């Protein structure tokens, strides 16, 4: 396993838990992102999985906003499409299949980026975080959240250090059940 890698890629069979009503209760999207996402924003959901947060973000940005849902697994994007269509918000969502080492997007003018339970699965975290930083507008925010059961405190500190090196400044620490998280701004 390469030095940067801490885990494996979450299979689509886990979506039952990831998109469960219990998780929506414990990790309420409006409580978590409400301060950072506004109608009309362009947001990106990196490693969108089954689209739980993609759909919530699409509701928050409204018809005039845009959500780019990115995942490396085609099956995850298919599940996200079905979920978003069912919820009536697919009109403002763009699905994008990336590769393991390349997000493959430029010039998106992103207001808010999210990587929820994703970064520990990324083999080249430094490269990934640099690519995220390059997608953000100067006043944008980036929220990175990792699961405590996969990412120990010292591993999370290592990720924070890598984000700093990628040009992201610490803004607000996130306190959330079962999770470690940080909101970043673009470094000056
Ligand atoms: C544990 S799931 C989390 C899904 C979603 N963010 C959530 O919280 O419900 C991790 C997701 O990240 C995706 N992923 C892993 N490595 C990735 C990478 N390098 N780029 C984009 N997505 C990646 C996986 O395919 C999977 O869908």
What does this protein structure show overall?
This protein is α/β, with parallel strands linked by helices and 188 residues long. The protein has a single domain (12-186), classed as Vaccinia Virus protein VP39 (Rossmann fold), CATH 3.40.50. The protein contains seven helices and seven strands. It has helices spanning 15-18, 21-26, 29-33, 52-61, 74-87, 125-135, 153-165; strands at 42-46, 66-71, 93-97, 110-116, 136-147, 168-176, 179-186. The protein has a seven-stranded mixed beta sheet with strand order 3-2-1-4-5-7-6, sandwiched between helices. Helix 6 packs across helix 7. The longest helix has 14 residues, at 74-87. The N and C termini lie far apart (34 Å). S-adenosylmethionine (SAM) is lined by residues 9-10, 18, 46-49, 52-53, 70-73, 76, 98, 100, 116-118, 121-122.
Secondary-structure map with pairings?
Layout: H1 15-18, H2 21-26, H3 29-33, E1 42-46, H4 52-61, E2 66-71, H5 74-87, E3 93-97, E4 110-116, H6 125-135, E5 136-147, H7 153-165, E6 168-176, E7 179-186
Parallel strand pairs: 1-2, 1-4, 2-3, 4-5
Antiparallel strand pairs: 5-7, 6-7
Helix pairs in contact: 6-7
The site of S-adenosylmethionine has 21 residues, from helix 4 and strand 2.
Keywords: Methyltransferase, Transferase
GO molecular function: methyltransferase activity
InterPro entries: Methyltranfer_dom (IPR025714), SAM-dependent_MTases_sf (IPR029063)
Calculate the mean pLDDT score and round it.
Answer: 94
What is the tally of helical segments? 7
User: Can you tell me the overall shape?
Assistant: globular
The percent range for strand residues is 25-35%
């Amino acid at each position: 396993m390469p030095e940067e890698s801490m885990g494996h890629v979450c299979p689509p069979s886990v979506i039952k838990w990831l998109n469960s009503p219990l998780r929506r209760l414990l990790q309420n999207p409006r409580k978590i992102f409400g301060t950072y996402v506004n109608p009309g924003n362009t947001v990106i959901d990196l490693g969108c999985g089954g689209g739980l947060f993609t759909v919530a973000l699409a509701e928050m940005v409204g018809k005039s906003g845009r959500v780019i849902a990115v995942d490396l697994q085609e099956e995850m994007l298919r599940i996200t499409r079905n979920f978003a269509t069912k919820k009536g918000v697919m009109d403002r969502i763009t699905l994008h299949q990336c590769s393991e080492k390349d997000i493959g997007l430029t010039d998106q003018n992103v207001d808010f980026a999210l990587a929820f339970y994703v970064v520990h699965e990324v083999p080249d975290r430094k490269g990934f975080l640099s690519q995220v930083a390059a997608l953000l507008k100067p006043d944008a925010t980036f929220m990175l959240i990792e699961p405590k059961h996969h990412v120990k405190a010292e591993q999370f500190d290592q990720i924070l250090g890598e984000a700093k090196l990628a040009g992201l400044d610490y803004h607000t620490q996130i306190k959330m059940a079962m999770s470690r998280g940080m909101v970043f701004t673009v470094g000056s």
